[in-house]
Amino acid sequence: MITQRLFVAGLTPRIQIVIALLVGAAVLVPVLNLAFPPSSPFHVPNYMVALVGKYLCYALLALALDLVWGYCGILSLGHGAFFALGGYAMGMYLMRQIGARGVYGNPDLPDFMVFLNWKELPWYWHGFDQFWFAAIMIMAVPGLLAFVFGWFAFRSRVTGVYLSIITQAMTYALLLAFFRNDMGFGGNNGLTDFKDILGFPVQASATRSALFAASALALAAGIALVAAIAGSKLGKLMVAVRDAESRTRFIGWRPENVKLFAFTVSAVMAGIAGALYVPQVGIINPGEFAPANSIEVVVWTAIGGRGTIVGPILGALLVNAGKSWFTGALPELWLFALGGLFVAVTLFLPKGIVGTYDQWRAVRRERRLAKADLPSGPAEAGDVRIVRASSATSPVPQGGPEPQPAE
Amino acid sequence: MTKNHTILYLDGVSVSFDGFKAINNLSLVLDKGEMRAIIGPNGAGKTTMMDIITGKTRPDEGEVFFDGTIDLTRHDEADIAMMGIGRKFQKPTVFESHTVEDNLLLSMKGPRSIFPALVHRGSIGEARRIDEILATVRLEARRADLAANLSHGQKQWLEIGMLLAQDPKLLLVDEPVAGMTDAETEETARLLREISKTRSVVVVEHDMHFVRELDVKVTCLHEGSVLSEGSLDFVSSDERVVEVYLGR
Ligand SMILES: Nc1ncnc2c1ncn2[C@@H]1O[C@H](COP(=O)(O)OP(=O)(O)OP(=O)(O)O)[C@@H](O)[C@H]1O
Ligand SMILES: [Mg+2]
């Protein structure tokens, strides 16, 4: 009953199509990869499975950011931290699966600990040999960090650029911490040389296909969740907090709780994305905490169109496909291209690709209606009104969410 | 003076911003069910008084009581709103990217925590209440339009509708007819008189024509304290009031 209530509101046709496409890909891609020989034109090569699987994880991260930025107006410049923490939790599980197959052949300690002359496993590594425990930590660690961080930040009414800066500081602090060898997370090198996941070899095509399918399904589930939240009364409240935070207080809401909910859910989603990413790329190191990574996520989301659910996913896929092509063809130009793209989108498509498309369609529909109303009268170009919001996608007002000061 | 029969009781309230006394030893009492008009030149402290009542600004000294017993200085904005004080801002503040209907939905009286909002499903009673409010504020035809597309006057009305949805005991209405035509102004006066039959109301307004329409007791503020109080005719013939208005 409750799930039914939860999942009716936000599922617009567009979102249903995207979910169907992802579920379709989760089935089809493994089949095309495994059942057809490499000589067949239908064969999807291994590298492609791994590459697109990685993009899907990025897309889930962008979707997580959309929930807080697009709907709640919290510009987090530290979402990469939650992604990396989820990734580290998964990495710890994968390290423990190596067992005695490491270079030093120590059944109890990962190689880097043997190298550091550690005698026993630190307490916080206990339990990570169990997948269920790691799975809980993948969600709990980012979720808890976001909750505690958000509790203090939102309660003390830190907003806008100050909030963005402290999220950036958070990921930078974690970057420095994870670089240290004595933290016990492999320092500079991070965690790598994984062998098995759930008993299957990570390098095998079948495992890679399964990880691809898991990523596609996780993204589909993430979309359904965000759409359901956005379509609910709480989702409307989030947009209200984004646009006129203090107004919501004067009708009795507590915007800090709304933000805390969105931020925590979003961090858990980012953690899951990171956990699916690590076995597919085969490594997790402190570089994932780099502030630039988090900023890149913001760029994907802005390019695709924040507050549109589908937009950030499109943005993540397009930009990363572009990045792969560029770093192959013109590696030294990639950063300029990304920067240029961001500037161009901010200037010419402030609502991003999907947001601009929606706006264009709305204007056309409005014109058609105006024509239908006045069959003989000329359609006035100046009479175009912005269309009403559909339930799940919430266009950010032109020029960004300008906070309205409640006087 | 006894607080018990008052809906709002301010005594000796002062607040200063960087040494500037915006409210200076202000005392004001509103009986249950009363409507009061507040006038005063720009900068008299009218909006600041509302900030104090709604918990946005903490007074430096003085007592602020609601409903005879509740000390408002101990509560924050959300608490105060839930106790039954609704506020319309001087600059109309509505949720621009929501429809008129959703603006009312978010303001409806009811639980204000996260999970009820997540699983909330409109009831027939709620829909009926929204219809009623839309009819009261004359926005039935605009219910599905974005609030951003309303005219200035319609936004003012939507904000009054949001107040009604909250079902407050006391309404604080800051300059409700700014930017309205004469016909709209009269309509607003009628609406507020209607509302004041069941609730207490404080209206701040510069428009004397409108204040006359309201036909209630008037308080004139000046430099953060009460200058004169009584019927509009009494207050507007008070020499000090005339001086304050003309002397600027
Ligand atoms: N947060 C603040 N910081 C500093 N000064 C303030 C603040 N709020 C109000 N003031 C000052 O307090 C004085 C009273 O302001 P207030 O807005 O209450 O006047 P008002 O009576 O509502 O005037 P108006 O009719 O123009 O709306 C003004 O001089 C204003 O500049
Ligand atoms: Mg004012």
Q: What is the element string of chain A, with H for helices and E for strands?
A: HHHHHHHEEEHHHEHHHH
What best-fitting shape of chain B do the alpha-carbon axes yield? Answer: globular
- Overall structural class of chain A, as computed from helix and strand content, comes to mainly alpha
Q: How many domains comprise the coordinates of chain B?
A: 1
Total separate domains of chain A? 1
Largest sheet of chain B: 6 strands, mixed
Total E-strand runs of chain B: 10
Distance between the termini of chain B: 35 Å
Oligomer: heterodimer
Bound molecules: adenosine-5'-triphosphate, magnesium ion
Mean pLDDT of chain A: 89
* Shape field of chain A: globular
Provide tags for this entry.
heterodimer, A: 407 residues, mainly alpha, two-stranded antiparallel ribbon, 14 helices, 4 strands, globular, disordered C terminus, B: 248 residues, alpha/beta, Rossmann fold, six-stranded mixed β-sheet, four-stranded antiparallel β-sheet, binds adenosine-5'-triphosphate, binds magnesium ion
Layout: helices, strands, pairs:
The complex is a heterodimer of chains A (407) and B (248).
Chain A: H1 2-6, H2 13-34, H3 46-69, H4 79-98, H5 111-115, H6 131-155, H7 160-179, E1 191-192, E2 196-197, E3 200-201, H8 205-231, H9 233-250, H10 255-281, E4 283-284, H11 291-304, H12 310-329, H13 334-348, H14 352-373
Antiparallel strand pairs in A: 1-4, 2-3
Helix pairs in contact in A: 2-8, 3-8, 3-10, 3-11, 3-12, 4-6, 4-10, 6-10, 8-9, 8-10, 9-10, 11-12, 11-14, 12-14
Chain B: E1 6-17, E2 20-31, E3 35-39, H1 46-53, E4 61-66, E5 70-71, H2 77-83, E6 85-88, H3 100-107, H4 114-118, H5 124-136, H6 152-166, E7 170-174, H7 182-195, E8 200-204, H8 208-214, E9 217-222, E10 225-230, H9 232-237, H10 239-246
Parallel strand pairs in B: 3-8, 3-9, 6-7, 7-8
Antiparallel strand pairs in B: 1-2, 1-4, 4-5, 9-10
The complex binds adenosine-5'-triphosphate and magnesium ion.
